[in-house]
TrEMBL record:
Belongs to the zinc-containing alcohol dehydrogenase family. Quinone oxidoreductase subfamily. The keyword Metal-binding applies. Transmembrane segments: none annotated. This is Zinc-type alcohol dehydrogenase-like protein. It comes from Paenibacillus baekrokdamisoli.
Amino acid sequence: MKAIGLLKYLPIENEESLMDIELKKPVPQGKDLLVQINAISINPVDVKVRSPKALTEKEPRMLGWDASGVVVEVGEDCKVFKVGDEVYYAGSITRPGTYSEYHLVDERIVGKKPTALTHAESAALPLTAITAWEAMFERLAIDPTNKEGNQLKKVLIIGGAGGVGSIAIQLAKWAGLHVIATASREETISWVRNLGADDVINHHGSLKEQLAQIHIEQVDYILCFNNMDHHWKGMGEVIRPQGKICSIVENKEPIDLNVLKSKSATFVWEFMFTRSMYQTEDMINQHLLLNEISKLIDAGELKTTMNKKLSPINAATIRKAHALVETGNTIGKIVIENF
C-alpha cells in the first residue's frame, strides 16, 4: 500500500522529512477496523511530532491522525462497525498514523461519517471536534442541554480561528453560551464571526482591557487554544470567581497557580489522545461523541471547518501542508484527499 513516512526528523524543506514509501497492507485483529482512507487533515500535532530533533527511526514512521474513509475489513471482536461503513476518526498517537492508504484503528474511537459531508469535509473534524467537546462538556462540565441557563454564561475562546477554536465556537453557540473569541487579522475576525462568535477581541492585546471595552468584566469559562504562557496572567485576571479554565497548549515556563487561589478557580488540561493512549474504560465515549457531532452536522447545527483542500495524498503535498501549518497563520483546517 502507499504510505508517507519518515526516518529522520528534519526541516520540512528537506525532501527526506516526509517520503513516499510502500508498505504491506495491515490485517485487523481484535477491535481494530481496517479503513481505506479517502482524506486526511493536518493538525499542529503532526507538525510538532515531525519537528527537527536528534532521533532516527529504524523503520519508517507514519504520522497523521485525522482521517475519513471506508471500512474494508474488521477484527474478530468488532461489534460497532461492519465492512462498507463510512467512518471518520482521529486515531491514537501511540500507533502508526493515517498517512497511509489503509489504516488500523480501534473502533471505540471511530465515528459514523456525517452523511451531509464529503470525506474531505469530514476529515477536517475529528481531532478538533473531540478536543473541543471534551474540553467544554467534560473538563469544564458545561451542560449542553441547559441552553437557557447557559445563555447567562460567557466563554472566552483564545485562538478562535484555529482548528479547535473553529469547532469550539460552533459547539459553544449550540450549547447556548455567549462566545467571545480572539482573532487578530481581518480575515480571522470575519471567520470567527461567521462561525457564531458574539464578540471578538485581539489576543495580542490585554484581555482585561478589551473585555472592559465591550462591558464584560469577567467570564465564566476560558478555553485556551494558543500560547498559554503569554495568556496565563490575563486569564487569571478575567476568570470569574469559581470559574473554570481549560487549556490544550502546554506551558513552556512555570505557571503560578496561586493567581487562581483567591477565586477558587479551576484549571484543567484537555488532551484528546488520553483515552486511546491509556486504554481507559470509557474509550467508547469518543465513538459516541463523534456520532453526536455527525448528527449535529447532518441537522445543520454545525459545519465543517475545512478551509483549504489539497490533492493528492503524497509526500510532496503533505510537506506543503506542514509548511503552511508551521506559519501559524492557517484558518480552520487543511485537508488532503485521494491517494
